[in-house]
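Researcher: Next sequence.
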Amino acid sequence: MKRRLFSTVLALTALTTGLSACAESPARPFAPPSSSSRIGSLMQIAIVDRTSGAELPIYRHRGEYWVAGRPGARYAIRARNAMGERIMAVMSVDGVNVVTGETAGIGQTGYVFGARENSDITGWRKSDSQIAAFEFASAGNSYASRTGRPDDVGVIGVALFRENVPMPSSPPPPIAPYQSRDEYSPRDRELRSESSAMGDARAKSAPAEAEASAQAPAGSMARRQAPAPSLGTAHGRRETSYVGKTNFERAQSTPDEVVRIRYDSRENLVAAGVIPVPPTPRWPRPAGPSPFPGSDPGYVPDPPARY
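Model: Next structure:
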């Protein structure tokens, strides 16, 4: 597997001082919010456009991660194990397990990545040697919708599990004699009294917290009217892709980390405010000749004069 090395480049900015002039300050160029292309701790997850080979920018908006897909484009889920141990990744697209085709659950099977291993998951697993390519398509033409499961179209999920590695056997620790109630020191009795009081306080506050949680709105982004059809992932053409089988015992039944990436068309993400657009220029076009005519913004010209 290929490995990628990343380096950090520091940019030095020269400062000039000393001369002051009476000049109008130009508008600052638009600097869109920074976006990353990989997220995750145990594994770094990215979405790759297979036509260009580029990792799609991941935008953070209201606590969620988004990528912009292009209808008809094939894509892959790129996963790089950042740990020096094996990690199991249970992957879902549109709420469907990419290996088994079941409605996705965290207890299902997935892919096992070796230490520092990097791989692209390019489609729905059909056998040990074939997949059906992931392809952005209209939500109605997605694999999930065509199999009667349209509710979770538009999301990619990766549940990560660490492995249960048997520890070398060691002699049992010595057993301390249990103290009877009368043997507790005054300090022990004080601590036990404080713990009991705290437990009562938590029990009383639990119903109020549950009621507040029930009244809170869901954390999903409210959809505005979409200018384009929403995207899903289709069951694309068959391709060759080999895998093997291995044994993996999870360290725990719940995931150690869950990565969730939502997606839609660029038009819809711009309309929803996920992808920012440059603001209109602050300064009007100056009258008279321009010292940089090749850099003037394009505006609608006046019509020819009537004769």
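Model: Residues 33-165+229-274 form one domain. The CA atoms of residues 285 and 298 lie 10 Å apart.
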